[in-house]
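Dear support,

I submitted the protein below through the web form. The confirmation email said the job was done, but the results page showed an empty box. After a refresh the structure appeared. I'm attaching both so you can tell me whether what I see now is the final result or a partial one.
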Amino acid sequence: MAKIAGVDVPNNKKLFIGLRYIYGIGPYVAEQIIKATKLDRNKKVSELTQQELSLLYNYIDANIPIEGKVKQMEFQSIKRLKDIKSYRGLRHKAGLPVRGQNTRSNAKTRKGKSKPVGGLKNKITKK
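What the results page shows now:
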């Protein structure tokens, strides 16, 4: 396994696919990295030389936010929405879908396990 930007990238994958194992790098950004570093996109990660790996690492480190930076930026933007009490922020706080999805019959993953509402019809009495 090659280590690029602190992430283990599988050796048997092509470079274009291997870069996408890094959090914050998708297909478009992977293509941009390959064009900027002028590497072969179909070359396997195991075939890269140490010099090519360091070139990749330096370019990614200098130009692209990855891993912790991206997660921190996401957290800060959600926190900002909550702080200004926007509609989206309130939905985040309540644990409901944020982008207008139906919640009557769907949204089980966002809302969680259903909670019973109301009391029992027959009161339980002690004997």
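Response: this is the final, complete result; the empty box was a page-load delay. The chain has two domains: 2-63, 67-98.
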